Amino acid sequence: MFRTHPRRSILIAGASTTAVAAAATVALIVPQLGPDSVATAEVSASTAPVAELGSAGAPQTADAAASGDSRVAETGKMSSRSETRAQLQPGAATTAPGAAAEEKAAAAAKAAADHRAHLIAQANAKARAEAAAKKAAADHRAHVIAQANAKARAQAAAKKAAAAAKAAADHQAHLIAQANAKARAEAAAKKAAAVKKAAPKTLSGSPQEIARQIVGNSGQYQCFAQIVQHESSWNPTATNPSSGAYGLVQALPGSKMASAGADWRTNPATQIKWGLSYMNERYGSPCGAWSFWQSHHWY
């Protein structure tokens, strides 16, 4: 059955009120739901149940009016829930442009912090590199100085060792020179003594005195003197006319005495040396010769 006209006016007014409430609800929900939710809310608002009117402004059917009542009630419930949510969330009234500005500021702050951290990292890396370079330079300089010091020490040690070796060599050479000089002096002294000893004694005096000096031993001299006395009577130039024997000891021939000296003809000492040598070689001594002479009257 059809509703009366006053009833239709009430339905139309309720639908208008519901549409306004839906729009307000969308405005409150937008900050919480985001852009996609806004689009959904707008669609919901645009599709809110409104009584379809005919060309005369009346509803077409009674079922449509009843459906409108139920939609009005549902829209009221949604409005009530939206208001409750807004009361529970104090920040829900913040506008979308403010949130975007905050996000942009936060992003800028983060970018600035990252850039500052990057600059600090670069500065730290540069400082570490410079410190490493300085340390390497200092280590190299210390190494060079250590090498120079070691070289100087080695050179000083070598010079000291060379000086010590030279001093030792000089000392040894000095000792050797001293020993050589001493040896030469001793050799010269020995040679002088030998020369002095070997030098013929200066003989002087009569033939008898010269014979005493040469023979030395008094007993042997007595035997020697007996032979000379019998042979030449101590005449250095005595000559045997029959045999040609000559001199103190009557050497035959007389030239034999040249082995004792070139002056054998006139020097008694030369004749005595030769006669003593002859007696020692042939008879062992002047006394041996005198013994033979006594038996044979010649020797």
Would you count the extended β strands for me? 0
Termini distance?
218 Å
Q: How would you sum up the major sheet?
A: none
Per DSSP, the total helix count is 8
Based on helices, strands and strand pairing, what is the structural class?
mainly alpha
Helix content: over 70%
Contiguous low-pLDDT stretches (5 residues minimum) are: 1-6, 26-68, 86-93
Order of helices and strands: HHHHHHHH
Report the sheet-strand fraction: under 5%
Radius of gyration: 82 Å
Principal-axis shape: rod-shaped
Calculate the mean pLDDT score and round it. 77
Question: Would you write up a description of this structure?
Answer:
With 299 residues, the chain is mainly α. Among the domains are: 5-98, no CATH class; 207-296, Lysozyme. It contains 8 helices and no strands. It has helices spanning 5-33, 35-46, 62-88, 96-198, 207-215, 218-232, 268-283, 286-296. Helix 1 (5-33) packs antiparallel against helix 2, helix 1 (5-33) packs parallel to helix 3 (62-88) and helix 6 (218-232) runs parallel beside helix 8 (286-296). The longest helix is centred in the middle third of the chain and has 103 residues, at 96-198. The model is unreliable at 1-6, 26-68 and 86-93 (pLDDT under 50).
Give keywords.
299 residues; 8 helices; disordered N terminus; mainly alpha; single chain; Lysozyme
Offer a quick outline of the entry.
The longest helix is centred in the middle third of the chain and has 103 residues. This protein is mainly alpha-helical.
